[in-house]
From TrEMBL:
Organism, as annotated: Sulfitobacter marinus
Protein name: Amino acid/amide ABC transporter membrane protein 1, HAAT family
GO molecular function, one term: transmembrane transporter activity
GO cellular component terms given for this protein: plasma membrane
GO biological process: amino acid transport
Length: 343
Protein backbone atom coordinates (compact mmCIF):
# COMPACT_ATOMS: atom_id res chain seq x y z
CA UNK A 1 0.00 0.00 0.00
CA UNK A 2 2.83 2.41 0.82
CA UNK A 3 4.41 1.79 -2.59
CA UNK A 4 1.07 2.44 -4.30
CA UNK A 5 0.56 5.71 -2.43
CA UNK A 6 4.10 6.82 -3.27
CA UNK A 7 3.55 6.15 -6.97
CA UNK A 8 0.24 8.03 -6.87
CA UNK A 9 2.08 11.02 -5.40
CA UNK A 10 4.74 10.76 -8.12
CA UNK A 11 2.00 10.52 -10.72
CA UNK A 12 0.21 13.60 -9.42
CA UNK A 13 3.52 15.47 -9.57
CA UNK A 14 4.15 14.54 -13.20
CA UNK A 15 0.50 14.87 -14.06
CA UNK A 16 0.44 18.42 -12.72
CA UNK A 17 3.06 19.52 -15.26
CA UNK A 18 1.36 17.59 -18.09
CA UNK A 19 -2.05 19.01 -17.18
CA UNK A 20 -0.86 22.63 -16.99
CA UNK A 21 0.92 22.50 -20.35
CA UNK A 22 -1.93 20.58 -21.99
CA UNK A 23 -4.43 23.08 -20.57
CA UNK A 24 -2.63 25.94 -22.29
CA UNK A 25 -2.38 23.96 -25.53
CA UNK A 26 -6.09 23.22 -25.45
CA UNK A 27 -6.97 26.86 -24.73
CA UNK A 28 -5.09 27.91 -27.85
CA UNK A 29 -6.53 25.16 -30.03
CA UNK A 30 -10.05 25.59 -28.70
CA UNK A 31 -10.12 29.35 -29.24
CA UNK A 32 -7.89 29.92 -32.27
CA UNK A 33 -7.90 26.48 -33.88
CA UNK A 34 -4.09 26.56 -33.99
CA UNK A 35 -1.93 23.52 -33.29
CA UNK A 36 0.86 25.30 -31.39
CA UNK A 37 4.08 23.28 -31.35
CA UNK A 38 5.86 26.23 -29.73
CA UNK A 39 3.93 25.75 -26.49
CA UNK A 40 6.66 23.63 -24.93
CA UNK A 41 9.07 26.51 -25.55
CA UNK A 42 6.77 28.74 -23.47
CA UNK A 43 7.12 26.26 -20.60
CA UNK A 44 10.91 26.46 -21.01
CA UNK A 45 10.88 30.27 -21.09
CA UNK A 46 8.86 30.28 -17.88
CA UNK A 47 11.54 28.19 -16.19
CA UNK A 48 14.22 30.60 -17.39
CA UNK A 49 12.17 33.51 -16.06
CA UNK A 50 12.82 31.98 -12.64
CA UNK A 51 16.53 31.67 -13.49
CA UNK A 52 16.70 35.28 -14.72
CA UNK A 53 14.87 36.67 -11.71
CA UNK A 54 17.15 34.75 -9.34
CA UNK A 55 20.21 36.15 -11.12
CA UNK A 56 18.83 39.69 -10.98
CA UNK A 57 18.30 39.40 -7.24
CA UNK A 58 21.90 38.24 -6.71
CA UNK A 59 23.56 40.99 -8.77
CA UNK A 60 26.32 42.35 -6.58
CA UNK A 61 29.20 44.78 -6.34
CA UNK A 62 32.54 44.49 -4.58
CA UNK A 63 33.33 46.43 -1.40
CA UNK A 64 36.21 46.49 1.07
CA UNK A 65 35.15 44.91 4.37
CA UNK A 66 37.38 46.23 7.14
CA UNK A 67 35.94 43.73 9.61
CA UNK A 68 37.33 40.77 7.66
CA UNK A 69 41.05 40.19 7.09
CA UNK A 70 42.95 37.88 4.77
CA UNK A 71 45.94 35.82 5.94
CA UNK A 72 48.19 38.88 5.50
CA UNK A 73 45.95 41.03 7.69
CA UNK A 74 44.62 43.13 4.82
CA UNK A 75 40.90 44.05 4.55
CA UNK A 76 39.07 41.59 2.30
CA UNK A 77 37.06 42.33 -0.82
CA UNK A 78 33.55 40.88 -0.61
CA UNK A 79 30.63 40.78 -3.04
CA UNK A 80 27.48 42.37 -1.67
CA UNK A 81 24.13 41.98 -3.49
CA UNK A 82 22.57 45.31 -4.41
CA UNK A 83 19.33 44.21 -2.79
CA UNK A 84 21.05 44.31 0.61
CA UNK A 85 21.53 48.05 0.19
CA UNK A 86 17.87 48.57 -0.68
CA UNK A 87 16.12 46.48 1.99
CA UNK A 88 18.84 45.34 4.37
CA UNK A 89 20.73 42.07 4.64
CA UNK A 90 18.09 40.04 6.49
CA UNK A 91 15.20 41.01 4.22
CA UNK A 92 17.44 40.78 1.16
CA UNK A 93 18.52 37.23 1.99
CA UNK A 94 14.88 36.25 2.53
CA UNK A 95 13.88 37.67 -0.87
CA UNK A 96 16.77 35.84 -2.58
CA UNK A 97 15.75 32.61 -0.84
CA UNK A 98 12.17 33.00 -2.11
CA UNK A 99 13.29 33.96 -5.62
CA UNK A 100 11.39 31.16 -7.39
CA UNK A 101 7.91 31.90 -5.98
CA UNK A 102 8.51 35.65 -6.31
CA UNK A 103 9.54 35.22 -9.95
CA UNK A 104 5.86 34.55 -10.69
CA UNK A 105 5.39 38.34 -10.47
CA UNK A 106 8.13 38.71 -13.08
CA UNK A 107 7.03 35.84 -15.30
CA UNK A 108 3.33 36.69 -15.71
CA UNK A 109 3.77 39.99 -17.62
CA UNK A 110 6.73 38.59 -19.56
CA UNK A 111 4.80 35.50 -20.69
CA UNK A 112 1.66 37.48 -21.57
CA UNK A 113 3.79 39.86 -23.65
CA UNK A 114 5.51 36.97 -25.42
CA UNK A 115 2.11 35.38 -26.09
CA UNK A 116 0.76 38.59 -27.61
CA UNK A 117 3.85 39.02 -29.80
CA UNK A 118 3.69 35.41 -30.99
CA UNK A 119 0.00 35.59 -31.81
CA UNK A 120 -0.04 39.03 -33.45
CA UNK A 121 3.34 38.74 -35.14
CA UNK A 122 3.20 35.23 -36.55
CA UNK A 123 0.41 32.86 -35.65
CA UNK A 124 -2.49 35.09 -36.77
CA UNK A 125 -1.28 34.66 -40.35
CA UNK A 126 -1.88 30.89 -40.13
CA UNK A 127 -5.42 30.76 -38.75
CA UNK A 128 -6.92 29.64 -42.03
CA UNK A 129 -3.97 27.56 -43.16
CA UNK A 130 -3.88 23.74 -42.88
CA UNK A 131 -2.85 22.26 -39.54
CA UNK A 132 0.32 20.90 -41.17
CA UNK A 133 1.44 24.47 -41.92
CA UNK A 134 0.68 25.52 -38.35
CA UNK A 135 2.72 22.62 -36.98
CA UNK A 136 5.71 23.41 -39.21
CA UNK A 137 5.83 27.13 -38.43
CA UNK A 138 5.30 26.76 -34.67
CA UNK A 139 7.80 23.89 -34.47
CA UNK A 140 10.32 26.09 -36.27
CA UNK A 141 9.57 28.89 -33.80
CA UNK A 142 10.15 26.48 -30.91
CA UNK A 143 13.58 25.58 -32.28
CA UNK A 144 14.47 29.27 -32.68
CA UNK A 145 13.44 30.04 -29.09
CA UNK A 146 15.36 27.00 -27.86
CA UNK A 147 18.54 28.14 -29.60
CA UNK A 148 18.13 31.70 -28.28
CA UNK A 149 17.95 30.34 -24.72
CA UNK A 150 20.97 28.13 -25.40
CA UNK A 151 22.96 31.12 -26.68
CA UNK A 152 22.27 33.31 -23.65
CA UNK A 153 22.21 30.70 -20.87
CA UNK A 154 24.42 27.92 -22.19
CA UNK A 155 23.74 24.23 -22.72
CA UNK A 156 24.10 23.04 -19.13
CA UNK A 157 21.21 22.82 -16.65
CA UNK A 158 21.06 25.71 -14.18
CA UNK A 159 20.17 24.69 -10.59
CA UNK A 160 17.39 26.89 -9.24
CA UNK A 161 16.67 25.93 -5.63
CA UNK A 162 13.33 26.17 -3.89
CA UNK A 163 13.04 28.23 -0.68
CA UNK A 164 14.95 26.68 2.20
CA UNK A 165 11.74 26.04 4.13
CA UNK A 166 10.68 23.60 1.38
CA UNK A 167 14.09 21.96 0.97
CA UNK A 168 13.27 18.87 3.02
CA UNK A 169 10.79 16.03 2.69
CA UNK A 170 7.42 15.38 4.28
CA UNK A 171 6.70 12.13 6.13
CA UNK A 172 3.46 11.43 4.33
CA UNK A 173 3.25 7.87 5.67
CA UNK A 174 3.31 8.89 9.33
CA UNK A 175 0.37 11.22 8.74
CA UNK A 176 -1.62 8.30 7.28
CA UNK A 177 -0.72 5.87 10.06
CA UNK A 178 2.17 4.03 8.40
CA UNK A 179 5.55 3.51 10.03
CA UNK A 180 7.76 6.64 10.10
CA UNK A 181 9.93 7.17 6.99
CA UNK A 182 7.77 4.78 4.94
CA UNK A 183 6.46 7.37 2.49
CA UNK A 184 8.82 10.33 2.25
CA UNK A 185 8.01 12.97 -0.34
CA UNK A 186 9.73 16.30 -1.14
CA UNK A 187 7.85 19.37 0.09
CA UNK A 188 8.30 21.28 -3.14
CA UNK A 189 6.65 18.57 -5.23
CA UNK A 190 3.61 18.79 -2.97
CA UNK A 191 3.69 22.58 -3.38
CA UNK A 192 3.81 22.12 -7.15
CA UNK A 193 0.75 19.90 -7.12
CA UNK A 194 -1.15 22.40 -4.98
CA UNK A 195 -0.04 25.25 -7.24
CA UNK A 196 -1.20 23.37 -10.34
CA UNK A 197 -4.58 22.70 -8.74
CA UNK A 198 -5.00 26.42 -7.98
CA UNK A 199 -4.06 27.49 -11.53
CA UNK A 200 -6.33 24.89 -13.13
CA UNK A 201 -9.19 25.88 -10.85
CA UNK A 202 -8.62 29.58 -11.59
CA UNK A 203 -8.70 29.01 -15.37
CA UNK A 204 -11.92 27.02 -15.20
CA UNK A 205 -13.52 29.56 -12.85
CA UNK A 206 -12.48 32.39 -15.17
CA UNK A 207 -14.06 30.69 -18.18
CA UNK A 208 -17.16 29.58 -16.30
CA UNK A 209 -18.10 32.53 -14.11
CA UNK A 210 -16.84 35.70 -15.80
CA UNK A 211 -18.54 37.50 -18.67
CA UNK A 212 -15.28 37.48 -20.61
CA UNK A 213 -14.97 33.73 -20.16
CA UNK A 214 -18.57 33.10 -21.18
CA UNK A 215 -18.06 35.08 -24.39
CA UNK A 216 -14.87 33.12 -25.11
CA UNK A 217 -16.67 29.81 -24.59
CA UNK A 218 -19.47 30.98 -26.88
CA UNK A 219 -16.85 31.97 -29.46
CA UNK A 220 -15.24 28.54 -29.21
CA UNK A 221 -18.63 26.97 -30.00
CA UNK A 222 -19.75 29.40 -32.74
CA UNK A 223 -17.27 32.12 -33.64
CA UNK A 224 -19.29 33.63 -36.51
CA UNK A 225 -22.47 34.12 -34.47
CA UNK A 226 -20.60 35.84 -31.65
CA UNK A 227 -18.97 38.13 -34.20
CA UNK A 228 -22.36 39.04 -35.69
CA UNK A 229 -23.42 40.23 -32.23
CA UNK A 230 -20.84 43.01 -32.48
CA UNK A 231 -18.30 41.42 -30.15
CA UNK A 232 -14.64 41.62 -31.15
CA UNK A 233 -13.99 37.95 -30.58
CA UNK A 234 -10.55 38.10 -32.23
CA UNK A 235 -9.33 40.50 -29.55
CA UNK A 236 -10.61 38.21 -26.82
CA UNK A 237 -8.95 35.20 -28.43
CA UNK A 238 -5.65 37.11 -28.55
CA UNK A 239 -6.00 37.74 -24.81
CA UNK A 240 -6.66 34.03 -24.32
CA UNK A 241 -3.44 33.25 -26.18
CA UNK A 242 -1.61 35.48 -23.70
CA UNK A 243 -3.33 33.72 -20.80
CA UNK A 244 -2.40 30.31 -22.22
CA UNK A 245 1.23 31.47 -22.54
CA UNK A 246 1.13 32.66 -18.92
CA UNK A 247 -0.22 29.28 -17.75
CA UNK A 248 2.63 27.47 -19.53
CA UNK A 249 5.14 29.95 -18.14
CA UNK A 250 3.90 29.57 -14.57
CA UNK A 251 4.14 25.80 -14.95
CA UNK A 252 7.78 26.26 -15.95
CA UNK A 253 8.57 28.74 -13.16
CA UNK A 254 7.43 26.43 -10.39
CA UNK A 255 8.98 23.37 -12.06
CA UNK A 256 12.46 24.93 -12.06
CA UNK A 257 13.46 23.56 -8.60
CA UNK A 258 12.23 20.08 -9.60
CA UNK A 259 14.10 19.87 -12.91
CA UNK A 260 16.98 22.31 -13.35
CA UNK A 261 16.13 24.49 -16.37
CA UNK A 262 17.89 23.61 -19.61
CA UNK A 263 17.37 24.69 -23.19
CA UNK A 264 15.72 21.45 -24.36
CA UNK A 265 13.24 20.97 -21.49
CA UNK A 266 10.45 22.45 -23.63
CA UNK A 267 10.89 19.77 -26.28
CA UNK A 268 11.00 17.10 -23.57
CA UNK A 269 7.51 18.04 -22.43
CA UNK A 270 6.07 19.06 -25.80
CA UNK A 271 5.47 15.62 -27.32
CA UNK A 272 4.08 14.20 -24.08
CA UNK A 273 1.77 17.19 -23.72
CA UNK A 274 0.39 16.74 -27.21
CA UNK A 275 -0.26 13.08 -26.45
CA UNK A 276 -2.13 14.25 -23.34
CA UNK A 277 -4.22 16.69 -25.40
CA UNK A 278 -5.09 14.06 -28.00
CA UNK A 279 -5.96 11.45 -25.37
CA UNK A 280 -8.12 13.94 -23.49
CA UNK A 281 -9.80 15.09 -26.68
CA UNK A 282 -8.74 17.99 -28.89
CA UNK A 283 -10.42 21.17 -27.70
CA UNK A 284 -11.63 19.68 -24.40
CA UNK A 285 -10.27 21.51 -21.34
CA UNK A 286 -11.56 18.97 -18.79
CA UNK A 287 -10.22 16.20 -21.02
CA UNK A 288 -6.74 17.75 -21.06
CA UNK A 289 -6.62 17.96 -17.26
CA UNK A 290 -8.04 14.45 -16.77
CA UNK A 291 -5.65 12.91 -19.29
CA UNK A 292 -2.68 14.79 -17.79
CA UNK A 293 -3.16 13.32 -14.32
CA UNK A 294 -4.20 9.90 -15.66
CA UNK A 295 -1.11 9.52 -17.85
CA UNK A 296 1.14 10.93 -15.15
CA UNK A 297 -0.05 8.31 -12.67
CA UNK A 298 0.26 5.49 -15.24
CA UNK A 299 3.79 6.58 -16.11
CA UNK A 300 4.68 6.62 -12.42
CA UNK A 301 3.38 3.09 -11.84
CA UNK A 302 5.20 1.88 -14.95
CA UNK A 303 8.45 3.14 -13.38
CA UNK A 304 8.18 0.78 -10.40
CA UNK A 305 11.05 -1.71 -10.20
CA UNK A 306 8.69 -4.69 -10.08
CA UNK A 307 7.01 -3.57 -13.32
CA UNK A 308 10.34 -2.82 -15.02
CA UNK A 309 11.66 -6.28 -14.13
CA UNK A 310 8.59 -7.81 -15.70
CA UNK A 311 8.48 -5.53 -18.78
CA UNK A 312 11.80 -3.66 -19.25
CA UNK A 313 11.44 -0.17 -20.69
CA UNK A 314 7.66 -0.04 -20.28
CA UNK A 315 7.96 3.32 -18.45
CA UNK A 316 9.29 4.89 -21.66
CA UNK A 317 6.37 3.82 -23.83
CA UNK A 318 3.39 3.41 -21.50
CA UNK A 319 1.91 6.81 -22.37
CA UNK A 320 2.05 6.08 -26.08
CA UNK A 321 0.57 2.59 -25.64
CA UNK A 322 -2.33 4.03 -23.66
CA UNK A 323 -2.80 6.71 -26.30
CA UNK A 324 -2.98 4.08 -29.05
CA UNK A 325 -5.53 2.01 -27.11
CA UNK A 326 -7.74 5.00 -26.30
CA UNK A 327 -7.66 6.41 -29.82
CA UNK A 328 -8.48 2.99 -31.30
CA UNK A 329 -11.51 2.65 -29.03
CA UNK A 330 -12.44 6.37 -28.77
CA UNK A 331 -11.03 8.23 -31.81
CA UNK A 332 -12.07 11.62 -30.37
CA UNK A 333 -10.26 10.98 -27.08
CA UNK A 334 -11.76 10.70 -23.63
CA UNK A 335 -13.82 13.88 -23.80
CA UNK A 336 -13.37 15.09 -27.38
CA UNK A 337 -16.10 16.92 -29.28
CA UNK A 338 -17.62 15.80 -32.54
CA UNK A 339 -16.12 17.44 -35.60
CA UNK A 340 -12.85 18.60 -34.00
CA UNK A 341 -9.84 17.62 -36.13
CA UNK A 342 -12.09 15.39 -38.23
CA UNK A 343 -12.36 17.52 -41.36
Amino acid sequence: MDAILLQILNGLDKGSAYALIALGLTLIFGTLGVVNFAHGALFMIGAFCAVTFSKLLTLSHTIIDDTRKDFLGNPMKVDVPYIHEFVGQTTGDAIIDWAVPLSILFAVPVMIAIGFIMERGLIKHFYKRPHADQILVTFGLAIVLQEVIKFFYGANPIPTPAPAVFAGSFDFGAMLGFDPNTIIYPYWRLVYFGFAAVIIGAVFAFLQFTTFGMVVRAGMADRETVGLLGINIDKRFTIMFGIAAAVAGLAGVMYAPINSPNYHMGMDFLVLSFVVVVVGGMGSLPGAVLAGFLLGILESFASMSAILELIPGINQIIIYLVAIIILLTRPRGLMGRKGVMEE
